[in-house]
Specification:
heterodimer, A: 570 residues, mainly alpha, 3 domains, two-stranded antiparallel ribbon, 22 helices, 72% helix, B: 85 residues, 64% helix, 4% strand
Amino acid sequence: MTTEIHPCVPFLAAALAAPLLKGRLRQAALLAAPCLALLLLVRLSGGARWTFEILGNDLILLRLDSLSMIFCVIFVIMAFLGNLYGIEAPPGQQAASQIYVAGSLGVVLAGDLVTLFLGWEIMAVSSTFLIWGRRNKKALRAGFRYLLAHIFGGGLLFVGVLLQRQAGSVLFESITLDFPGMLILTAFALNAAVPPLGAWLPDAYPEATVPGAVFLSAFTTKTAVYALARGFAGTDVLVWAGAAMTLYGVVFAVLENDIRRLLAYHIISQVGYMVCGIGLGTSLSVNGASAHAFCHILYKGLLFMAAGAVIHVTGRSKLTELGALAPIMPLTTIFYIVGAFSISSVPLFSGFVSKAIVVSASTLRSGGLELVLTTASMGTFLSIGLKLLFAVFFKKPSGEAISLKRREPPRHMLLAMGLASIMCVSIGVWPAPLYRILPYPLAYHPYTRDHVIGTLQLLLWTGFGFMVLIKKLEGKSTITLDTDWLYRRGAPRLIRGVAAGYTAVAASAERTLLATGRNVSTLWSNPLHVWRALSIPYDDERRFRPLLIVHMVWILSVFLAAALVFWQFL
Amino acid sequence: MKRSCDNEAPGDGVMRRFRKVFYLALVVVVLADLFSSHSEHAVFFWHKLPGFDALYGFLSCILVVLFAKTLGRMILQRREDFYDD
């Protein structure tokens, strides 16, 4: 009987419990929910369950296979780490994040597009509260922009699903690229933060609460990666869209000054590898995308936890205001380094064993693709492994120094970061268990002599490049324009322009209409006013005799008209 | 090069030793390439060039930074209060 329970149920229960329980009891509920969900998950057997028929739709709430399994496992693990990290967050925040996790499990386990859409919207709404939870004006506005972007994406998805239903079935399998398919693809791409639809991500994530950003970094983009892998594996446009994403994130991160915004741009860059792997569509590349999603969730969560710890302790979030934190927060520094080395695919860390699969798969398509992905990988090491690490933890702060004695974040935060670090290193050292749960059978050996030497060359010589350019890479207190400019500045301007144009046209139409009316009524009351229209002097005061002349004129014209008609018809 | 590195080092002695080890490592990884087989998984010609990865890593790092900085200076970077009302 227990095998029948949907793994999102424990999270929904925890969402209810969080505001109702207090103290240790609440903490226990939050930590128990992911454990229970994992237990339910491993006891599920494959196939479709929880099927309903509503309004002629076959809804499948629980469909498990190897592709959904790996995403569910990592989501549940990440939920545990996130709950541990945010165990002292306000209960409202905790409830929102539990609903957010439940929504993403709903999406990944959905067997049909209607269920997927429901989970999609639950995620969008609940995650917005993780941004609003910061409770300042910037977060409020960023949250609204985030919500509107996702409502737009949800609308596209909804229309796509409706059209798909009209055409036949709403089962969530491989989707053909006709018009409804393209709507659905666009909606998925928006959530995967594919530019130019992805500006909501670096706009909103850095404004979220400290534990909220940890959750956000993991779930929205990776459910989209899952949805793309399920629906659009082998879609050619995704190959180069993904490759472009990897570089786009890297280039914008070089310019960034806010630490969490820098990390957010690298979410886009890393998701690019997954999107590219899905686009390639081979079993090797889809395996690579899934493995990379698994590793990415762990190390990106870890990086956001470390950045959050820095913000929690110092209250600052800008490279230009931070520096020399290594002596103050040595443990956080070590955890950050583990995350940074993992994302940079340093051998023995998790990114090395997953990114390599996608890059290997790309060589089967084209050499240019491999070089683009390698460049982006080096850019990642440059920004996260070198620039941010150096600027936050080692360099002397350029502004006001941080006068703190040794002060780490609270123990539960350290514990969450420690667990994530252990997982990153264990996957890197011993990738076999990860490779076993991938969607397709995989025989891949990341630790060949050539691969390790090649990677070390790339990394070390990128480090040399960093030393050469160190001056250029110092943080600058600027912000960077992205496509969110279009709706933050462009759209208001456009609306103002359209409104002004409309007002001008309407006003002139109104003027013309009123003038015409005035003239008609004047002429009607006295046709002799036509003299005035022809600019012939006509003295109103003395010669205006409406009673007699006007009525005579009208009576005569009526007779004239009647006579004309009479002659014409007889 | 020398000048730019001086600013980064608070603990000078440690940093100098670290830098020596680092330069040594740069040379060692390139030399190590001479002893690797280059036969496994060599798909394109550059997989067989010794030291290609080192050169590519260095150049792509420089290019990414210069490209990003130019783009930022010309179009993308604004004052921090750009979006404030």
